[in-house]
Write a structure and sequence with these properties.
Elements (H helix, E strand, L loop, with lengths): L10 E5 L2 E5 L24 E6 L6 H4 L24 E8 L12 H8 L14 H9 L8 E4 L10 E3 L2 E2 L6 H9 L16 H5 L2 H4 L1 H10 L2 H25 L23 H20 L5 E5 L16 H7 L10 H22 L2 E2 L2 E2 L4 E6 L13 E6 L10 E9 L1 H10 L24
Parallel strand pairs: 3-8, 3-11, 4-13, 5-8
Antiparallel strand pairs: 1-2, 4-12, 6-7, 9-10, 11-12
Helix pairs in contact: 4-9, 8-9, 9-11, 10-11
Amino acid sequence: MSRDLTRRTFLHGAMSGAAFSLGLPIFDAFLNDAGTAWADGGQLPVRFGTWFWGCGMNPPRWNPAETGAGYELTTELSPLAPIREHLNVLSGFSVLLDGRPNHPHHSGVIGMLTGAPPTRSKDVPAPTLDVLIADEIGSATRFRSLEIAATGNPRHSYSLRSESVANPSEVSPLALYTRVFGSGFRDPNDAAFVPDPEVMVRQSVISAVMEDRRRLERELGSHDRQRLDEFLTSLRQLEHQLAMQLEKPPPLAACVQPEPALDSEVSAEIGHAIANHEQMAGLLALALACDQTRVFNTVFSYGASNLHRAGNSAGHHTLTHEEPIDSALGYQPNASFFVDRSMEAWTTFVQKLAGIREGDGTLLDNCLVLAHSETSFAKVHDVSGLPVMTAGRAGGRLRTGIHVAGTNDPTTRIGLTVQQLLGLSVDKWGAGSMQTQKPIGELFA
């Protein structure tokens, strides 16, 4: 194995006549003998991200009764069983309004992410948590942050420096793939970005770097060659999935061409959103593994969630208000269907990060992901007891596998904890009664 390899090693090739470089995952060759730091002594990168779903949950069916490591998963948390060891569940933390009105589907998320409740609808009183963190850890990578939304609207993003400065979301796997792994650079804040699908049709990223791949394989040890093969296999599988979407289907005699319509594969229909989210989660995980970014934001469904079932005009948000509570069940079964699907999608997202080996652990071990919604019980737009979770160990700094119950404590305790775990020099955060100097000590490893 060559010791000339460094963490700045790339695979090089050409696409569409232009020089091209592909970032690589973290190989053993880049690390110290223990696999816990770079060979030059620097620490492995720790990443931060958010994962958002709209319209909350049902508190009696979501909040665990026990605290600490021995808590029992409730009905609405049961989809998280495969990943519970990687998670913390945080209940009972609230956005305190200080007498301000509760702006539906806005006050909760903005209060959570900025540390202050908004004074009016669309108000953003301070930069969101991810922006503050990107200011500290996002300047060393190609993308300061990456945003994705599963339901097809680039405006579905909660990454905000102010009311008028937002980071728009990528909404299709093809656009995300082309932006991160394609031959041309695009402004990460350009909402009008249009990918060139011919890039993928003419030549894949893996084909472009094949010759340099062979050179690199000769310099790697057997374990790193296996990791390179796993990385490129994952990328090839995603390329294949995306390429299939660009191919013309075979002719069918009974088929009559309909009027032009939006691409049904990127929409708020729950099946499309789930599939779209899963592909983009896989691509985002590869982007993180290649250190293309260290900050990311994922919106599975926006506040006032427009998720809906195929053929059903009543969507998630509408159901939370119009569906009666079933007297026998004690909750709204059709609205709660979307809570269950959201928890399943969150499980998929965490598994994508946990499935990539990095150093002596996984990519997830070097992440801190904050998952949350904008309300607890959406029928009444409640911003008390918001559902919040964390995933990952933040490079070993964060304890996992526990439930912490707040007692109407401000959500800023969570935001302050996140910032301190990521190394930001901050001893208090928030405004008004939301301001706190009290992190959640149970979460520190």
